[in-house]
Structures are given as structure tokens and as C-alpha cells.
Amino acid sequence: MEKIKVAICGYGNLGKGVEKALLNPANNDMELVAIFTRRDPKEIETISKTEVISIERIKDYTDKIDVVILCGGSAKDLPEQGPTIAAMYNTVDSFDTHAHIPEYFEKMDTSSSLMKKISVISVGWDPGMFSIARAYAEAILPTGSTYTFWGKGVSQGHSDAIRRIAGVKDAKQYTIPIESAMERVRAGENPKLTTREKHLRDCFVVAEEGADLERIEKEIKEMPNYFDEYDTTVHFISEEELKENHSAMPHGGFVIRSGNTGNNTQIIEYSLKLQSNPEFTGSILVAYARAAARLNERGYYGAKTAFDIPLSMLSPKSEDELRKGLL
Amino acid sequence: MEKIKVAICGYGNLGKGVEKALLNPANNDMELVAIFTRRDPKEIETISKTEVISIERIKDYTDKIDVVILCGGSAKDLPEQGPTIAAMYNTVDSFDTHAHIPEYFEKMDTSSSLMKKISVISVGWDPGMFSIARAYAEAILPTGSTYTFWGKGVSQGHSDAIRRIAGVKDAKQYTIPIESAMERVRAGENPKLTTREKHLRDCFVVAEEGADLERIEKEIKEMPNYFDEYDTTVHFISEEELKENHSAMPHGGFVIRSGNTGNNTQIIEYSLKLQSNPEFTGSILVAYARAAARLNERGYYGAKTAFDIPLSMLSPKSEDELRKGLL
Questions:
Q1: Omega within 30 of 0 (cis) for the link into B127
Q2: Whole-number Å distance between alpha carbons of A65 and A58
Q3: Whole-angstrom Cα distance, residue B205 to residue A294?
Q4: Per the CB < 8 Å rule, is A262 touching B186?
Q5: What angle do CA A96, A100, A101 make, to 5 degrees?
Q6: pLDDT, tens digit, for every residue of A229-288?
């Protein structure tokens, strides 16, 4: 059987996560054939020694690539690159700006439908796996409440926000779910939880020499949207300590549905505990790249989300093998 | 929009669970129109006052019913009734004899394909929801191990096996997952676990007056396949105590995938904590009945499992609403 030819567009942490997943022999029904970048290709050394090509030349490879995995950021890269590339290639991405998903879906759908390509959007772990957990649980237990907790994990957005404060040299922010709130949910209490009751924020900050630590701590804790609605702890540490203890990119989270049938409480819980967020997200994108290639070959096109794709499409196993081994 | 017309075939605990789910106003895109039984319909009183009809007359209702939910047992009822009914109606069932699924699938597929009906098989929680958890996790983390733990919950099969022992009047058996084994899995150890290391069996037995308790306990603990490979505890209790404390039908379980990407461990965990096993399974069947009706209307037919059905088909919400609210 011919291998599915995959390209990566954007070679940051996520792009490298995708590359590692494609190097896994268990995924050898796929092969990585190109990495597109906005940077100077000569400056980039890849783990797999795959050819690195300027994104400007992406349109020249349409006969060599089955799926392009879009690894740019959701804020600027994907809204710009997505619709253009979706008109040329089957695509997969982890677009995660929840509020803008309907708009992004429409644009990707228009673009990919035109050329009868398939564009699978928002298939990271949230949105993506957690969306499936939420929709599946709600369909089965329509009476009840769903709770999503994130962490413990590094929030890139919150870390960046701290770094923009005057006097801050570097920072890492951890989002931590509050265990007692999760226990109430698991006990079937269906509590109404405020933002503050669901998550804590824990910040590790390297200050410039002589900076006013009190002011920095106050600015962090009072920052609107990012921190003001949370209980936030600030630790000032050295640059070495930050590098040594806070360089990893762990994350995770919980989706808990507490529902009722008759007089009975039924709890469905889905959770992730990830040592590397980008490697995990990369692995999800690779599984959906397989699905995208297969579905397009069967004649499906347009934008799709995790809700639209049968799980059998994600596995390298045949439908017979899945029924025999995993059902 | 016209409601999906649903019938139940088999009115035991599971049939009643389905009936309760159909009475939930959140599922009012469906309506229960008939209950088929092998018993004398006159002897059956239903919660919803739905018409009860002898199963012998099931072929006369093909213009009145969109989906029949098969609520018979997997050992005898479904292999017999399933293929016959699947030739007349779209069907949904929770066939759960794992070893016989491929054979059952083939029979249902032949039968339903002939009349261009759809037969959704094995969509309880295991097989069903847990199958999805296993296949999804393995597709995303192909390098790793998957563990399924069941309980704490009542095993009907094991309870029945105890009841067949001479001198036993009644019994309930609980399957209990061993917490320390689960912790090793969650820690990413990828342990090799024997049957004995994964689950305990806890038995509550009502003995006939004057029965030899020591012999009964020995017969339980040494029973091949059912108990001999487990650490089993036997408690002799009174009939009243059994009725008062052990009449509920709780169950649940855990699917844990421990996988690796690069040098990192990634853990995916899915769990259920159910106060009523039949009501929960009934709720799953109802969601898949919606999917069966919709898919058949779109021209799909033949046997399908949980792996083949996009999750958007299960929800009463539109695809737009799902993307906006749950993605």
C-alpha cells in the first residue's frame, strides 16, 4: 500500500512534535516529505533531515503531498495561512481560539470545498479530544452538567503576559485545577463554580536586577482577564532555577460530566496527564492526518471537526482488526 | 421536524432503562411507540403506558417504527433475534460477548444490508464507550499499553454462577479494581499485570438454612474461570440484608492508556462511575438510536459499531450548535 505523504507547515514546538510522531515506526503508513517555513530554510536543521522549503513555494508541491499539517499559531498564522493552503491541500490543524471557531470553520470550508479537499480543524486536545468527551457525554446524559478543568500545566499565554511586565526578564505560569472543586463535581453535587473556585495560577518569575518585586507581584495579581479573577501565587526565582525546574511543557486536564437518569447519578470522566503538550498535540494531528487522507480518497471534502470523523479513520488498523482487538 | 419512532424489544432492566431515557424531555426528538416482548403482553405494565405487543407480531409494524432497540441478553436473545429483526428494522444493541463480536457483526451486516437497514451493534459502555476510549487513545499514542479495569460494580454473570451452587439461595458479586495496580499504570510504569493483580471479587451470599458454609465458600473460591484466578472474599448474610444493601446495580470502570512520545510519558484516562448500570446503558442505546435513524435516512446501511459513527450523529444538537457550544 502506498504511504500517505505528509508535510508540516511551521517548525516550532508543535511542528517538532508532529515530526517526532511521524518518526514513530507505528505510524509508518505515513511519511514526512517536506517541512514548510516562513524562515530562511537554510537556517533550520530538522530532527529527521527532511527537506525544508520556503512557504512561498508551497503551491509547487501539490502532486507530491497528500496532507499538510498546519503547525502555526491560532492568533495570527492559521487564520492567514489556513484558507490559502486548504484550497491546495488536505489540511489538519489545532486551531484553538474557541470563540472564533465558527468563523474559521466557514472560511476553511469554503476554501477546501472549492477544490474538493478536506480540512480537519481544531483537533488538538482542547478543542479536539476534550470536545469529543464533552459532546459524547452530553449526548448520552442530556440532563446534567459538564465541567472542564485544565492543568496542571504551563499556559503559554499567561507566561507571555507576565513577560510583558516592566522589570520581568522571564516567567512561567502554571494553571492548576482545584482538587476540592473536582471532588464536588465527582460526587455528583452539580455545583455552580466561579472562575476562582475552579483554577489556581502559580507564577515563577525571574526579575531584572533591582526591579521592584512588590510592584511586579501586584501587577500580575491585578492583571484583568489573565489573573484578577484567580487566586494567584508569585514566586521570584533565579534564571538558573527557571531553566532547570521549569523548562518542560507539561499539561493536562479533566472533562467531567455529572448526569442523571431516573434517580441515579452517573459520572463520566476523561482526563489527560501530559509530560509534553506539543508532542501530544503533534500525535493527535498525525492521527487526524491519516483520517483526512483516507476520507478525501473516499470522496469526502470540506471542513470537518472531531465531531464529524469516525474513530476508525484514525487508526492504522483495519476495521476488522479494530472490531476483533479493541471493541 | 418529525420525531424518530423507536421501539424496545425485551422489557427487562435494560428495556426499562431505555424507556426512562426516552421519557427524558431532552430526548423529545424521539418517541417510544411500542414495546415488544416474548411474554404475554397482558401481564406487563410499563412505566410509560406504551403499547406492549407480542414479539410474534413485530413484522406488522414496519411502517410505524424507525428504529428497534434490542434489549435482550447477549448469550441467547441477541444472536437469535438480532439478525431476524435487522432485516426488517434499523436496530441498536449492546451485544457484549467480546469473543463473538466478529461473528455477530457478520450476521447482522448480511441481514441489514439486504434490506438497506442499519444495525448498530455493541454500543453499551463496554463494548461501546470503552471501545472508543481504547481505539482513540491507541491511535494517538501508538506506542504504549492500554489497561481496562472494571468496577466497583455488580457482575450479573458471577452472581448467577454463585446462585447455581447447591445450598445458595441468593447472591451478589462485586468486581473491584485494585487501586494500587491502577496507580502503577497512572504513574506510567507500564506494568505487566496478572488477572489477580487487577481485580478483586467480593461475594455476598444468602445460604439455605443448614447449608455447609465452608463447602460453599470453597466452591466459590475454586470455581474455574469465574473465581479461581482472583482473590475472592465471601460474606454470608441474611436475605433481608442482601435486599436492603445489595439491590442496586452500580458499575463503572477505567480505561487507561499509558503511552510515550519521544522521552515523555502521556496518560489518557477514561472512567465511569454509575449508580445504575441498566439506566446508563439504556441512555447510550437511545443516543445511538438517534444516530441509526439519521444515518439510514442519509443512505447508510449495514452493520456499524461505535468506531464507525461520527459523534455529531448522537446529539440532538445541530452541527452548528455543536461547533459553537461544545468544540
A1: yes
A2: 10
A3: 54
A4: no
A5: 65
A6: 999 999 999 999 999 999 999 999 999 999 999 999 999 999 999 999 999 999 999 999
ipTM of the complex: 0.96
User: pLDDT category, A1, cuts 50, 70, 90?
Assistant: confident
Q: Which residue out of A18, A264, A283, A319 would a mutagenesis test of the B interface target, given it has the greatest number of B Cβ atoms within 10 Å?
A: A264
B282 touching chain A per CB within 8 A: yes
All three cell numbers of A44, joined, read: 533550520
CA dist., res. B69 & res. B30, Å (int): 12
* Beta-ladder partners of B31: B5
Is A220 in contact with A165 (CB distance < 8 Å)? Answer: yes
Is A283 an interface residue toward B (CB < 8 Å)?
A: yes
Tell me if chain A has a CB within 8 Å of the CB of B81. Answer: no
User: Can you give the length of chain B in residues?
Assistant: 327
To probe the interface with A, which of B154, B264, B309 has the most A CB atoms within 10 Å? B264
Looking at beta carbons, which residues of chain B come within 8 Å of A279?
261-262, 264, 266
| Pairwise CB contact (< 8 Å): B269 & A267 | no
Closest C-alpha to A274, from B257, B276, B311, B315: B257
User: Measured in whole angstroms, how far is the alpha carbon of residue A80 from the centre of its chain?
Assistant: 18
* Per-residue model confidence as pLDDT tens digits over A107-134: 999 999 999 999 999 999 999 999 999 9
Choose among B273, B272, B295, B296: nearest CA to B129. B272
Per-residue pLDDT tens for A139-176? 999 999 999 999 999 998 899 999 999 999 999 999 99
Say what the pLDDT of residue A31 is: 97
Q: How far apart are CA A175 and CA A194, in angstroms?
A: 15
How close A45 gets to chain B, by Cα (Å)?
A: 18
Closest CA of chain B from A70, distance in Å: 17
Contact A267 B273 (CB under 8 A): yes
Residues in a beta bridge with B93: B70
Full 3-state SS string of chain B: CCCEEEEEECCCHHHHHHHHHHHCHHHCCEEEEEEEECCCHHHCCCCCCCCEEEHHHHHHHCCCCCEEEECCCCCCHHHHHHHHHHCCCEEEECCCCHHHHHHHHHHHHHHHHHCCCEEECCCEECCEHHHHHHHHHHHHCCCEEEEEEECCEECHHHHHHHHCCCCEEEEEEEEEECHHHHHHHHCCCCCCCCHHHHEEEEEEEEECCCCCHHHHHHHHHCCCCCCCCCEEEEEECCHHHHHHHCCCECEEEEEEEEEEECCEEEEEEEEEEECEHHHHHHHHHHHHHHHHHHHHHCCCCEEECHHHCCHHHHCCCCHHHHHHHCC
**Nearest of B264, B133, B253, B265 to residue B187 by alpha carbon:** B265
Query: Which residue of chain B has the CA closest to A314?
Result: B139
- Minimal Cα–Cα distance from A295 to chain B, Å? 12
Q: What is the 3-state secondary structure (H, E, C) of A132-184?
A: HHHHHHHHHCCCEEEEEEECCEECHHHHHHHHCCCCEEEEEEEEEECHHHHHH
A91 touches chain B (CB under 8 A): no
The C-alpha cell 482488526 sits at: A321
Considering only CB atoms, which chain B residues are within 8 Å of A305? 322-323, 327
Across residues A10-19, what is the average pLDDT?
Answer: 97
